UniProtKB/TrEMBL annotation:
Name of the protein: Aldose 1-epimerase
UniProt EC number: 5.1.3.3
Phylogenetic lineage: Bacteria, Pseudomonadati, Pseudomonadota, Gammaproteobacteria, Oceanospirillales
UniProt source species: Halomonas binhaiensis
Similarity comment text for this entry: Belongs to the aldose epimerase family.
Compartmental location: Cytoplasm
UniProt pathway annotation: Carbohydrate metabolism; hexose metabolism
Length: 391
């Protein structure tokens, strides 16, 4: 039985499961291995880690941006398909412009997931200016956000799981944010087909923090067409309506009688073209939903969303400790990018469900605070659980 060691640096570049063992894949213990993925301009080597669980479900992650490059998940008959959009080569992830060349495929987002209006905020009367990389506003941590950093990586194995621990030190003043921020993200692939993500951070000066994961999913397989027939449930009775630039207006609006109401599962495409001001502003769905957390404690996982694919029957459930989730229906994809399958990613060929605090919280006194003080530890926990229903 071949089983790769879990210590980063000494991981063999040989695949952990050999051909002969493919047949007995169901019974193989979880494993982790790594191969070279390329080099940054400054010469730093970048690897690609391959994590496999006992069911053969596998995930490839690169420490560049903490990016999930592929996620192969079984359907009801055990067929594996790669269900996240992305590229085969590191160079494609390095492409500069954000919306068109690499729209954050699979990346970790920091220091602040989503938008900050006017690319600035104030703490105790002092104003901090950030890069404006989305019109006048700041998006996903700036031009050199955490999606553009080479994280330190350490692989690990547990009895029924395998994972990768990523760490990053963001210096004081990084992208305009105060304080040195030490961030840690722990990806764990469990034998019950869950991808568990734990985020942790500490700071030397008070600063906003809102970390998230920006995978685009197509549960029938990336490159298999649009996601409009996926049936979505979002456990939210309110959302934060936005202006034309997708900046929250400041209130939480009820979803009663709205085409954004997903409390009852419905196909993503069934109302997406309705003449609704919020859908028109988002060019589809690109909104923060306020999760119905009931009496759940802040650190408790609550079901935020469930998605079922029309052809494969794959199901993804998203559980989170966060108060919000951004549902983005891939509206800015326009066919100009070709991904792993060799098929251009047309509009709405993937969707993102980004667990988070609300957008623009640093400028919105009524939203839950995103400020982290040096006395506190930032903790956030999200779990994507995969299963399938018979077709
Ligand atoms: C987020 C935003 C979208 C878009 C994508 C990246 O999900 O909400 O508006 O910017 O990132 O293309």
């Amino acid at each position: 039985m071949v089983c790769a060691l879990a210590i980063a640096g000494s991981i063999s570049s040989t695949m952990a499961i050999t051909k002969d063992e493919d047949a007995s894949m169901q019974k193989s213990p979880p494993s982790v291995s790594s191969v070279p993925f390329g080099q940054l301009d400054d010469g730093r080597e970048v690897s690609l880690y391959r994590l496999v669980n006992a069911n053969g479900m596998e995930m490839a992650v690169t420490p560049y941006g903490g990016t999930i490059v592929s996620l192969k998940v079984p359907d009801d008959e055990g067929n594996l398909d790669d269900i996240v959009l992305g590229f085969d080569h590191l160079e494609d992830y390095l492409a500069p412009a954000y919306q068109r060349a690499n729209p954050y495929f699979g990346a970790l987002i920091g220091r602040y997931g989503n938008r900050i209006a006017g690319a600035s905020f104030s703490i105790d009367g002092k104003t901090y200016r950030l890069p404006a990389n989305d019109g006048d506003n700041h998006l996903h941590g700036g031009t050199q956000g955490f999606d553009r950093r080479l994280w330190q990586a350490q692989a690990f194995e547990e009895e029924h799981a395998v994972g990768l621990l990523l760490t990053l030190e963001s210096p004081d003043g990084d992208q305009g944010y105060p304080g040195t921020l030490r961030a840690q993200v722990r990806y764990t692939l469990t034998d019950d087909n869950a991808l568990d993500i734990r985020y942790e951070a500490s700071t030397t000066a008070t600063t906003p923090v809102n970390l998230t994961q920006h995978s685009y999913f197509n549960l029938d397989g990336e490159g298999s067409g649009d996601i409009l027939a996926h049936r979505l449930m979002i456990n939210a009775s309110g959302f934060t309506p936005v202006d034309d630039a997708l900046i929250p207006l400041g209130d939480v609006r009820s979803l009663d009688n709205s085409p954004l109401d997903f409390r009852t599962p419905v196909a993503i495409g069934s109302r997406i073209d309705e003449d609704d001001q919020q859908l028109l502003r988002g060019k589809g769905y690109d909104h923060n939903f306020v999760i119905d957390r009931g009496e759940a404690a802040a650190e408790e996982l609550v079901l935020a969303a469930r998605v079922e694919a029309p052809r494969s029957g794959r199901v993804m459930e998203v559980y989170t400790s966060e108060p919000g989730i951004q549902f983005y229906s891939g509206n800015f994809l326009d066919g100009s990018l070709t991904g792993k399958s060799g098929v251009p990613y047309q509009q709405r060929s993937g969707f993102a469900l980004e667990t988070q605090h609300y957008p623009d919280s640093p400028n919105q006194p009524d939203f839950p605070s995103t400020l982290l003080t040096p006395e506190e530890t930032y903790l956030s926990h999200t779990r994507y659980v995969f299963s399938s229903v018979p077709q």
